[in-house]
Amino acid sequence: MYRTLPYLGLFAAAALLQVFLFDNLTISIYLNPLVYIVFIALLPLDTPPAAVLGAGLALGVTMDFAMGAAGINTIATLLIAFLRPTLAGMICGRDNVREGGIPSSARLGERKLITYLVALTLVHHAVFFSLEALSWTHALHTLLRIVVSTAVSAGFIWIIALQVVVLLIFALIVGRLAYIQLFDSRYDDLARANVLRHVVQYPPRGEVFDRNGEYLVQSRECYDLMVISSEIGKQGFDTARMCDVLGLSRARLERELANARMRPRAPRLIMNYISKEDKLRFDECNFRGFYTVYRTVRRYPREVGGNLLGYVSEVNPDYLKRNPEYKTGDYVGMNGVESAYEPQLRGRKGVRIQEIDTHGAIKGSYMNGRYDSVPEPGRYLVSTIDARLQLLGEELMRGKVGAAVAIEPSTGEILMMVSSPTYDPDQLVGRQRGNNYMKMLYNKRKPLFNRAVKAKYPPGSTFKLVQGLIGLQEGVLRPSDLHSCHMGYQAGRLKMACHAHASPLDLRFAVATSCNAYFCYVFRDILDNPKYGSVKEGYDVWKQYVESFGFGRKLGSDFLDEGNGYVPDRAYYDRQYRGSWNSLTVLSLSIGQDALGCTPLQLANLACIVANRGYYYIPHIVKKIEGQDSLDARFYERHYTMVEPKHFEPIVEGMWRGVNVGGTSTRARLEGLDVCGKTGTAENPRGRDHSTFLSFAPKDNPKIAISVYVENGGFGASAALPIASLLEEYYLTDTIRRPELLQYIKDMNIYYPAYDK
Predict the structure, then answer these.
(1) 4-180: which CATH topology?
(2) Residue ranges per structural domain of the chain
(3) How far apart are CA 337 and CA 691, in angstroms?
(4) CB within 8 Å of 570: residues ≥ 6 apart
(5) If you count Cβ atoms within 10 Å of the first and of the last residue's Cβ in the chain, which end, N or C, has fewer?
(6) What is the SS3 assignment for 669?
(7) DSSP string of 503-572?
(8) CB neighbour list of residue 303: distance below 8 Å, 6 or more residues apart
(9) CB 545 within 8 A of CB 642
C-alpha cells in the first residue's frame, strides 16, 4: 500500500464521521447510514488481499469499540474486506484491478464506481442488520432496513468519494451552531450555574401522634454541611478551626475534600446532622466555599414502636432507579408507618436561588426571589396506637421473642403492635445510625424483623375455633354433639395425645378445655363429608373456609411488608405423599399444626372475627391524615367469613367458659370484664413449645381483641396468657391490680438456643 499517511487520515476521518455525525442522525430507524466502509472501498485496487483483511479487521474492531457493539461491525467489515478483490474484479474488470489505482469515476467510469460502491455496501449491511436482529420473525423488517440503509449509505459514500464531504461538514457545523444559539438552552444554563446557586429547601416531615394526641414521632432541626471545591480560596482555610467547631475529625474532612475535588463545581456533602448551635458557631467563621442546608431529622419522644413506626434513611442508588422523583441526598421512610405513608409525610421540597460572585460569596437572592419556591411541610398523622399500651406491651415482651397485637374489633384500628425484640428508633437517627443498624442487622434475635406482620407461626390450639366454626357451617357438628377423649384421639395406629379433662364433651367445653380429640373428630367429618366426591374435594372446601378468615393471604393492612402466612393446598400434600393421602394423613391441621402458618396480626384478626360474630375490618395503623376527611375506603368495609353469624355464639360461649367457669384460660379472668379467651400451645421441633393466646373483652360489645405469641414460651397459659391479660386489664381499666403477675412477667427471661448459641 502506498500513500500511507493519507489513508491513515481517511481511516480516522471515516471513524470520526461515523461516531460523531452519522450515528446521531436519528430521523428514522431505516435511515441508518454506515459510511465508515468508505475506507475499505477507496483502498487502491491493487492492494494485497492480506492488507485489505488487516485494514478491515482494524476498522471493524475500532467501530465496535466506539459504538459499544458486540463484534457485529468486525464480522461485517471483515466479510467485505475478504470479498472486495472478487467484487472489484467482477465489476471493474481484472485488468483495472491489476493496474491498481484509487477507485474513482475518472478511473473506472461513473456507472462501474456506483455499482462497486453499492455492492460492497449491500453485502456489509445485509450481514450487519441480520446479526443485529437475530430473529426470523422480523425478516421483512430487517430486509427493509437493509435496502433503505444501503441506498442512504451508498449515497453518502458516493458524496465522500467525490470529495464533497468538506462542504457537508461545514453545513452541519453551521446548522449545529444555529441550533445551539436559537434552541439549545443547556449552555445558557451552564453559564447561569457559574453565577447562581440552587439551595434545596427540605421540608420537615409530618409528625405522628398516638390516638390520644401524644407525640410518637417529631421532627427536629439540623443542618448538612456542603462544599463546592472550586469556590474555596487558593489560600485555603483553617481546617483545625473547622474541625474544632464541628467536632469533625481531620482525616474525615480531608477525605471528603478530596472527593469534592473530583467534581469541583458540584456541591458535596461534608457532614450531616449538625445541630443548630454548631451551625451558628460555623456561620461566625465565614468559611469560603462552604454552606449549610437546613433539614429535619426524626425524634421519638416515647422511645417505642421501632418496628411499628419504621425509620428514615438516605436513598440508595437502587431506590433512585425505582423512584426517579427522589434525588441523591433525599431521605425516605423505611418500613412501618414511615414507609407506608411516605407520600403524606415527606412534604415537598423548595429551592432558594442565590447569586454568587466569582469567589463564591453570596451577593443576594436571584431576581428578588421571584423563582424561589417555599417547601411544603409533610402532613401529620394520627395513628390508632395507644402509646401507653404500646409501652407496656414492649415492657412485658422484653427478654422474649415473639409478638403481641391488639385491635379494636368495631373499627379494625390497631391499638398496639409489639415485635420482640424491638429497638429504640432513636438509634437509627444521627451519625451513629450506620453503626447501630449493622449491630441490629447481625443480632441473632433479629430486632429489625417485624414478627407481628411477617413471621409465620403455627397457630396451635387457637385454630380450633376455626375448625369448630367450619364444622357448624358444614352441618357436620352441632353445639350439643358429644365426643369422648381418652387422653387423646386414636385411629388405628395413629394416636394424638391430649391432656386430662372431663369426657365426653360438647362443643362449648371442648373449646374451654382445648380438647384435641374433639376437633380431630370435627376435622375428619369435614373432609370426609359424603357430599364431596373425595377427601381432596373436601379439603379444597375446608381451605376456602380458612382463607375467608384471613389466613394464607395478606389482610390488606397499611403495612407494606405484611406477610401472607401459609395454608397448604392439595398440591402441597400431593407432592408430600405422592398423591396418596387422606384425612388422617393431615390430621395435625385439626389442632393448628402441620404446614399451617399465620402471622400474629392474622391471629388478632381472628379474635376480632369471633368478637364481631363473623366479620372484620382490615386492620390499620392510621386514624386520621391531615387534610383528608377519611382514610382509604377499604378500611371501612366489613369483610364477612363463609360462616353465618349464628354459629359464632357457641364458640364465644366456650371461650367465655374457658376463662370464667373452668378451662385452660382461667388465669385470664378479670372481675366484671367478661373476658373471652383461647389458649394455644404450638409444637416446636427445635425446642420448647411456643405459647400463644387470643382473647377479647368484654364478651358483648368488645373494646379490645388481642393475640400474643411467645416463642419457646411453653403452654399457652404460661407466658402468652398473662401478657395478654395484663394488657387487657390496663387498656380497659387504666390500672393493673395484679402487681405480682406484672413482676412475674417482667422477670421472665426465656432461653433461646436457636438464637443465642
Answers:
(1) Arp2/3 complex 21 kDa subunit ARPC3 (1.10.1760)
(2) 4-180, 196-383, 389-756
(3) 28
(4) 536, 539, 540, 543
(5) C
(6) coil
(7) SSB-HHHHHHHT-HHHHHHHHHHHHT-TTSSSHHHHHHHHHHHHHHTTTTS----S-TT----B---HHH
(8) 424, 425, 426
(9) yes
What type of residue sits at position 285?
A: C
- 408, 514, 499, 405: which is closest to 452 by C-alpha? 405
CATH code reported for the domain at 389-756 = 3.40.710.10
d(Cα 122, Cα 83) in Å, to the nearest integer?
A: 12
Residue with cell 443480632: 443
**Which amino acid, residue 403?**
A
Residues 6+ positions from 202 with CB-CB distance below 8 Å: 293, 294, 295, 296, 349, 375
Cis peptide before 103 (omega within 30 of 0): no
Cell of 471: 364444622
- The answer to whether the CB of 583 falls within 8 A of the CB of 622 is no
Q: In degrees, to the nearest 5, what angle opens at C-alpha 132 toward C-alphas 131 and 135?
A: 75
Is a pLDDT exceeding 80 seen at residue 453?
yes
pLDDT band at 178 (very low <50, low <70, confident <90, very high): low
Alpha-helix runs per DSSP H in 570-667:
570-577, 600-611, 648-660
Q: Is residue 628 within 8 Å of residue 382, measured between CB atoms?
A: no
- Residue 698: asked if its preceding bond is cis (omega within 30°), the reply is yes
What is the number of alpha carbons within 13 Å of residue 337 lying toward its C-beta?
Answer: 30
Query: What are the start-end ranges of the H helices in 589-711?
Result: 600-611, 648-660
Highest mean pLDDT among 172-176, 537-541, 557-561: 537-541
For the chain, give the mean pLDDT: 85
Contact of 479 with 650, CB cutoff 8 Å: yes
* pLDDT tens digit sequence for 719-739: 999 999 999 999 999 999 999
Q: What is the pTM of this model?
A: 0.72
Distance CA 122, CA 37 (A): 11
Beta bridge partners of 274: 223
Per-residue pLDDT at 754: 81
Could you tell me if 115 and 139 are in contact, meaning their C-beta atoms sit under 8 angstroms apart?
Answer: no
Torsion of CA 303, 306, 312, 313, to 10 degrees: 120
Pairwise CA distance, residues 539 & 128, whole Å: 60
The CATH number of the structural domain formed by 196-383 is 3.90.1310.10
Using CA of residue 614, residue 620, residue 625, residue 628, what is the dihedral sign? negative
b/e map 502-523, b = 16+ CB within 10 Å: ebebbbbbbbbbbbbbbbbbbb
Please check whether residue 375 is in contact with residue 347, taking contact to mean a CB–CB distance below 8 angstroms.
yes
Nearest to 477 by CA among 503, 502, 507, 504: 507
Start-to-end C-alpha separation, the chain: 78
- The whole-angstrom separation of Cα 310 and Cα 335 is 5
Angle (CA) 447 451 455, round 5°:
130
Judge contact between 364 and 352, C-beta under 8 A: no
Over residues 87-135, the pLDDT tens digits come to 777 877 777 777 677 776 666 777 777 787 788 778 877 777 777 666 6
Separation CA 725–CA 734 (nearest Å): 13
Question: What contacts 24+ positions apart, CB below 8 Å, involve 514-517?
Answer: 514/461, 514/464, 514/658, 514/663, 514/664, 514/678, 514/679, 514/680, 514/716, 515/483, 515/485, 516/461, 516/485, 516/488, 516/489, 516/590, 516/591, 517/483, 517/484, 517/485, 517/486, 517/488, 517/489
CB atoms within 10 A of CB 101: 13
Alpha-carbon distance of 88 to 96, in angstroms, equals 9
The helix/strand/coil state of 679 is strand
For the residues of 714-745, what is the DSSP string, one character each?
-STTTTHHHHHHHHHHHHHHSS-S-HHHHHHH
Nearest to 486 by CA among 524, 529, 528, 520: 520
